[in-house]
Amino acid sequence: MTNHENRQFLARREGEITDQKDRLPKVEMPSKMAIIPPIEGLYLLDQEELFELVLAEVRDKFDVCVGEDDMYIACFPKESSAPYPVLGAHLDVKNDVPPYFVQEWVEDGCRAHVGFDQVGERCILGADDRNGVWAMLELINQGFTDWGYIFTKFEEVGRLGAIAVRESGILQKRRDEIAYFLMLDEPYTDRLGYRVMKKLPGKPTLHDNAMFIRKLAIFGCFEGYKLAKDGSTDYIEYCLATGLCGINLSVGYMNYHKPEEYSDMVYVKKLPRIIEKLVKHLGAEQYALQNSLSISA
Asked: Is 28 a member of any domain?
């Protein structure tokens, strides 16, 4: 789907929403509701539509690898002189059913987005992980093409896209170019999430590198983030494939995988600058894991 076709799709969907809004059952929501503008339209796309949109955006800007059966889009700089971060996000949402329309909730200075189905009931918004995808597309459109980006399908049903990336060998071939992995799939607004891995004796983690941990702790201290154990997501496969560190940054969604999911849009709009600041802080050096890892039960 081209940019023009995507805008047409969103315009049609917004027109449908406007036409049907008065016929939908009244929803019990906080005051000051308004239909959001098309810029937030990523929430309305299913993963196939989003895949085509992403591919159209990146195909001329990177060395692009598309996985078998379109399981992923991996983007690497056309030229690189120093180790670069690889950012990751997934294209699917829980149950792979996007909302039919999205509204903005504004109350006491807080701006949030929430999702509704065709009969006006609250449903999963899909900010997990459309917020991460949006932030990556914003960075790409702002010219950050000297970093790597991986967009995957089917994270919610077992990291299938990320497993396909690992099994393809593309990360192993580029291992010497990569600095670390920055996953954009952590809930809330204040976390640097890491996955505890299994190795006897002890339990090393995906940020198991003294300098990496130190720099993350400094960043967290000044920017209001805490290191915290996270769940299972795509960057596990990337770290295992390469032996390089990874961390998962909060992207501003709450109550994920539930109809009550919402997205803190004040934080989301800041994400590109937060990511830029974190990457600058970590610097252009490679962070290798200091222990051999295997997936924890």
From this structure: yes
